[in-house]
Design a protein that fits this description.
The complex is a heterodimer of chains A (321) and B (321). Helices cover 32% and strands 25% of the residues of chain A. With 321 residues, chain A is α/β, with parallel strands linked by helices. Chain A has two domains: 3-92 and 174-316, Rossmann fold (3-Layer(aba) Sandwich), CATH 3.40.50.300; 104-172, no CATH class. In chain B, strands 6-7-8-3-9-10-12-11 form an eight-stranded mixed sheet, sandwiched between helices. In chain B, β4 (70-75) and β5 form a beta hairpin. Classes of the chains: A alpha/beta (321), B alpha/beta (321).
Chain lengths: 321, 321
């Protein structure tokens, strides 16, 4: 398969008053054409910063991509001028943000905001743009698209706003769609609708999806391949079945166990002790060692390499399962 | 014979919706509509439903944090709907609540010690050193370090803050605890830690829990009995295994169907609920669920189904049954 996106040794840091927060610290992964890759991790592990780095939307005041390559269709995005990057955003790479409530502009109609995304990249009349918008709203299964066109975001429920966001991201037919926690704020029945929409987009289009989530249930539903992220690095990478069947990293194993036990009522859960470290204050060696049952002296001192244990399955651990 | 701690009879709470210049009442939101519930001592009742279905209003009305419009609440078989303010104040020691958002439910200007000891200071006249001892003991019970005592909420992670909220709630040794989405805002690995803590506390202090959440996986794990709520009504109630293995109400079935799967090998095409939760202000005639129900019949628009016993300890409100 051809790779549409390659991320090599990405480092994105933020300067705070007192320290440097190394939010992403040496993340590497690839996405193939037509593939849905899930980037999974707990809050503060660097998932969203990775997405913002790909879009080159890391806030310039405090943040900086210090090192690494982001190669999209053969071009390193980090070498593009801001003008060239603009042509990428939306047209080549679309993004759905986490909060459908706050990512749409409350002062403009849904139709206007989607139309804006179309007109930024293509020359056409307003009338043509409008019919394209309605077509897009149809595609994301928005009820009564003609009427919704002139609605404002506050007229729509959370689920419908998320559909509008997805329509906006799809407006210029991007080849890569980045979806940052697209269903986190939604009720389960609405989440199921949106996930179904994503699987349909997967089937009908030759589009790659980078799905960022903390929810392993969502991963089980639609991912082809999974990258588990911890403290700014990819600690395990494999196809979705091997990840669930045979996790190799103790962190992945712990995450799966803390949800798997939910099938049985009232049993004590397997727990990963402690919490995710702060990006400005990460432990040395393997960042997971303070929470790991298998940790020894090597883990405390040296960072493990990201090695392929079997075809397509990579893990960063001195003592994989 | 069941040992009932809390019982609710025909409880009703409507909120007026006011509109326009003169602030006229334009309609009513039927947040809690004729709800009957029984809670067995030392057990956990899981209350599940989508956002806006009235879960939180029901719980707060049971604690009389919100005044009911009609109906009766019994606590230890005593009616508490019309007791004197003084008696209610004393009763507060026995019924407490843990809130959803550990970031907004703790006063940022209070030290941990002051947050936890506020209730003790109100109800028990203790010397300073005795009070400090009690706070330390509570910290130990919820698994926080001793030196947390003089620190402020912002110094803690989400999971630790939730532990502070739990310590505050159990400080007066209540017998009834409302847990309003206590783990929804936490990371998966931390959720497991808090759930385990709640199990421990329940065993240790014989607590009765009303566990509110929208997450069926969590409900399945923590509850002895489960009540499913839709637009102000309980639509189905049963012991855990019955509800999850033999759901009867179409809404419960759809909720279960919509819950993300635990393993990618369970992927399958599913029946997905169309539409959104109906506005609580404009309820349809007859059964509230009929506009989204796949098996709605003629009678559903004419008559509201009553919650009736369909099997031992299994109640549902549907004309099909």
């Amino acid at each position: 398969m051809t790779e549409i996106l390659q991320i090599n040794n990405l480092h994105t840091y933020f300067n705070t008053d007192t320290a440097v927060a190394r939010a992403v610290e040496g993340a590497s992964f690839n996405i193939s054409k037509g593939e849905t890759l899930a980037l999974v991790g707990e809050s503060g592990c660097g998932k969203t910063v990775t997405a913002l780095s790909i879009m080159r939307l890391v806030p310039a005041i405090t943040g900086e991509i210090v090192q690494g390559e982001i190669i999209f269709q053969g071009h390193n995005l980090l070498n593009l001028s801001e003008f060239e990057m603009r042509a990428m955003r939306g047209q080549k790479i679309g993004m759905v943000f986490q909060e459908p409530m706050s990512s749409l502009n409350p002062l403009f109609t849904i139709g206007y905001q989607i139309q804006e995304a179309i007109l930024a990249h293509q020359r056409m009349s307003k009338q043509q743009a409008k019919s394209q918008v309605i077509e897009l709203l149809n595609k994301v299964e928005m009820p009564e698209p003609g009427q919704r066109y002139s609605d404002y975001p506050h007229n729509l429920s959370g689920g419908l706003r998320q559909r509008a966001m997805i329509a906006q991201a799809l407006a210029a037919h991007p080849e890569l769609l980045i979806a940052d926690e697209p269903t986190t704020a939604l009720d389960v029945t609405i989440q199921a609708q949106i996930l179904k929409l994503f699987s349909r987009l997967k089937q009908t289009k030759e589009m790659s999806i980078l799905l960022i989530t903390h929810d392993l249930g969502v991963v089980a539903e639609i991912a082809d391949r999974v990258c588990i992220m911890y403290a700014g690095r990819i600690v395990e990478e494999a196809g979705v079945l091997p990840i669930f069947n045979q996790p190799r990293h103790p962190y992945t194993d712990g995450l799966l166990k803390s949800i798997a036990a939910r099938n049985y009522s009232r049993q004590r859960l397997m727990v990963i002790p402690g919490v995710v470290p702060e990006p400005a204050n990460k432990p040395g060696g393997c960042a997971f060692h303070p929470r790991c049952r298998r940790a020894d002296l090597t883990c405390r001192r040296e960072m493990p390499e990201h090695l392929e244990t079997e075809s397509g399955h990579k893990v960063s651990c001195w003592h994989p399962l | 014979m069941k040992n009932i701690l809390v019982q609710v009879e025909a409880l009703k709470k409507y909120f007026p919706v006011k509109r326009g210049l003169l602030y006229k009442i334009a309609g009513w939101i039927k947040a809690v509509d004729q709800v009957n519930l029984e809670m067995e001592k030392g057990k956990t009742l899981g209350l599940v439903g989508e956002s806006g279905c009235g879960k939180t209003t029901l719980a707060r009305t049971m604690l009389r944090l919100i005044e009911p419009d009609s109906g009766e609440i019994y606590f230890r078989e005593q009616p508490i709907t019309r007791i004197s303010p003084q008696a209610l104040r004393n009763l507060r020691q026995d019924m407490q609540i843990v809130f959803q958002d550990p970031f907004n439910s703790l006063d940022p200007r209070f030290t941990v010690s002051r947050t936890i000891s506020e209730g003790l200071q109100v109800f028990q006249s203790l010397s300073k050193s005795k009070l400090a001892d009690q706070v330390r003991e509570l910290l130990a019970v919820v698994g926080l370090p001793d030196d947390a005592i003089n620190r402020y909420p912002h110094e803690f992670s989400g999971g630790q803050r939730q532990r502070i909220g739990i310590a505050r709630a159990i400080s007066l040794k209540p017998s009834f605890l409302v847990l309003d989405e206590p783990v929804s805002s936490l990371d998966v690995s931390v959720q497991a830690q808090i759930i385990n803590l709640l199990y421990e506390l329940q065993e240790r202090f014989a607590l009765t829990y009303l566990f509110i959440t929208h997450d069926l996986n969590i409900i399945r794990q923590v509850s002895d009995e489960v009540a499913v709520m839709y637009l102000g009504k309980i639509v189905e109630q049963a012991v855990n295994a019955d509800l999850f293995n033999r759901p009867q109400h179409p809404y419960t079935k759809i909720l279960l169907e919509a819950t993300p799967i635990a393993h990618p090998k369970e992927r399958k095409p599913r029946a997905i609920l169309k539409g959104e939760v109906t506005s609580a202000m404009h309820l349809p005639s007859g059964c509230r669920f009929r506009t989204r129900c796949p098996s709605a019949m003629d009678i559903c628009s004419r008559q509201e189904p009553a919650l009736k016993e369909i099997a031992p300890n299994h109640r549902a409100a549907c004309h099909l049954l």
